[in-house]
What does this fold into?
Amino acid sequence: MNVRFQKTARGEVAILPRKDYEVLVAKAAEAEEDKGTARLVARARAEIAAGAPLLPKQVVDRLAAGESPVRVLREWRDVPQMYLSFKTGLSQGYISDLETGRRNGTAAALRLVADMLKVPLDLLVRD
It folds into this structure.
């Protein structure tokens, strides 16, 4: 790196070629990205320590493939539709409609399902 230092009225400044400057800017961006990643990892570790569920890779893959979150998570928890219906007070037909996409589900209904399956509500909400 070819750096020159020059004194000015405001203090000493470094003068360097644009190419070297761009390398430094890229490294600074990587450092910021690393700090952001570290924050995400720390948050995930805190959530896990607080009891948040860890999802098996197969479950994550099915969710990422666009399968019904209600169905995927219900099957992961090994809960039949009828049992979920009984525990939530929702009809079995309503749960079936959620799983097939015929209904999106109300926030209240999805909250009941999330609580029964012991998963965060945001896992059940589709984009």
Remarks:
- The mean pLDDT is 90.
- The CA atoms of residues 73 and 106 lie 18 Å apart.
- The first strand starts at residue 4 and ends at 8.
- Helices lie at 18-49, 57-64, 69-76, 81-88, 92-100, 107-117.
